[in-house]
Amino acid sequence: MIPLIMMAIAFLMLQFSLVHCSEVLGIPDVITPQEVKFQSLDYINVLHWKPNGLLSIAPEYFVQYKIYGEKHWTNVTHCQGINQLLCDLSQETSDPREWYYARVQAALPGASSPWVLSSRFNPHWETSVSPPRMKLKVTKQGIVVQLRTPSSPFVKKKGSCGSRRKFQRLTYNIYVIHDNMVQEEHKLDNCVSELLIKYLSPNTTYCLQAEAHIQRLGRSSKKGEKSCITTL
User: Dihedrals φ, ψ of 18, to 5°?
Assistant: First the structure.
């Protein structure tokens, strides 16, 4: 009996909060999404927004997008009536030559907010990149570094050079570290996936770090985690 009474009280409080807010601001104003913007990493383009902090109930959200210059908006089919505060638009914004807009609307039963527009977005110019993944192997000649490009809709699984070039024109910086000091730095084009580092001291542990650099934008990834290996 007590849980039912508490649920009834909570429901009434929620209704009072909703009515009070609607009287002061109007429900559409209360539920309007805030800070609608794209965030892009490795061409994974995700639209984010924040809820209005005045409302204690979660509305449903509806997302649309369009290419810059087009008149009509298109529903994002997997982001209709959702409760999450994000929507993955990688597939819808996959052409790096185009500029895109997205917009979000919030809704409660009987009320909808205005559409809130994102800034104009282009994946080619605005994506950030992750550091490449490294696999190390030691041989008599030295340390063999194998690099793997970050996963992306623009990088085919076979990882051909042509497909990797679509993932921006990247270069990789490989840092060879010993005793917490950078001993060597190597630069690789993104079509080169393997590096042999020679002339190292025998029976010595070296740590390596890698970062990616977008030449055209002058933008670099964070340095990846250190990977360490001991020479023969």
Answer: -65, -45
User: What are phi and psi for residue 161, nearest 5 degrees?
Assistant: -60, -40
Question: Which CB contacts under 8 angstroms, 24+ apart, belong to 138-143?
Answer: 138/229, 138/230, 138/231, 138/232, 139/196, 139/232, 140/232, 141/196, 141/198, 142/196, 142/197, 142/198, 142/199, 142/200, 142/231, 143/176, 143/196, 143/197, 143/200, 143/206, 143/208, 143/229, 143/231
Is residue 164 within 8 A of residue 149, CB to CB? The reply is: yes
* Euclidean distance between CA atoms 113 and 28, whole angstroms: 4
Residue-wise pLDDT for 24-83, tens only, equals 445 778 899 999 999 999 899 999 999 987 777 889 999 999 999 999 999 999 999 999
The residue among 112, 94, 111 whose CA lies nearest residue 103 is 112
Cβ atoms of 230 and 138 closer than 8 Å: yes
